[in-house]
Amino acid sequence: MSFLNSKFSHIYIEKGIENARLTHQIINRLPKANVIFIKHHKDVFCRSGQDFSLQKKSQKIILAEKKSNFLYKGSEFCPNYGEKEFYYTTPVLNCIYNCEYCFLQGMCASGNIVIFVNQEDFFKEIKTEIHDKKIYLAISYETDLLAIEWLTGIVSKWLDFATENPDITIEIRTKSPFTEPFSYMLNPLKNIIISWTISPDFIINNYEKDTPPLHTRIKAISKLIAKGWNVRICIDPIIYVENWQTHYKDCIETVFNTINQGKIHDVTLGVFRMSKETLKNARKKNPQSHILGYPFLLENSSYTYPGSLRQTLLEFVYNETQKFIEKEKIFV
User: Which of 12, 121, 155, 285 could form a disulfide linkage to 62, CB 3.0–4.6 angstroms apart?
Assistant: First the structure.
């Protein structure tokens, strides 16, 4: 018997945003949730002494107003696909999923989720900051927006923003099979890239807690490819486990023998990497983790697999992928 509250049993709301449209929407979609008013989201989200892992089992929602820092320069830990003007933004902080290798556990003090209800301010400030430049913008770097789209509708708002701003290419990274926001559009948007993270079933079952199985991700990918959307396949991070060659070979063959290979936008590959301080915090929160406990090599303030192993992992997955996708479309 579990003594934990159910997921989203409580909603914390900053005073002053109780009348926001998105606030009302979320409350209406979670009618049984207890509502608690707070002064500032950081009083709950950033307080010390929290148990990230335990909170992940019984997540709460924190509704807040974003007042500054709407646009960040792209992180060195994210591939930029050759884009010079690479940025990311944070409509939501933290993720509904609980992947063992995720950097969020080392970055966030809380396992709860912060949703910024003033999305229109994001659009306004981003347009002001970029000054009509062509930019590449990742919007789900610190969350999985599609996984909570049923609750927030935020992805749909960004699709409308992309329609009005064709010079902004928006990447939506996800593990979710939820595709409804794209189905509602009359035509696919050329400046939208949906990036699906795929992993072998072994990795999903053991290290990507609560995420959808591989076959449902493949089904969603195939659906949107058929409709003409730009779909990116992300085999990232590649995780070193026992029999990893077999796991990744089977995964790659399953994916590319099922989907329409010729219509894939591109593929990105990457191995596990995490900043020094983030890994230190993640290990404290999850000391039993086999993945986090690996004796990584410190290179330029970040931890990753030693050079020879890293090269072996990338070369193997690259060579297997190249059997299906031309090398010009594979980013490492």
Answer: 12
* Separation of first and last alpha carbons in the chain: 46
Whether the CB-CB separation of 216 and 258 falls below 8 Å is answered with no
Exposed, middle or buried, 108 (CB in 10 Å: 0-12/13-18/19+)?
buried
Q: Determine the residue type at 2.
A: S
CATH of domain 67-331: 3.80.30.30
117 token code pair: 């209800």
Largest separation between any pair of C-alpha atoms in the chain: 56
Whole-angstrom distance, CA of residue 54 vs CA of residue 29: 24
For the chain, give every domain's residue range: 67-331
pTM over 0.85: yes
| Cβ density class 163-184: b for 16+ within 10 Å, e for less | eebeebbbbbbbbbbbbebbee
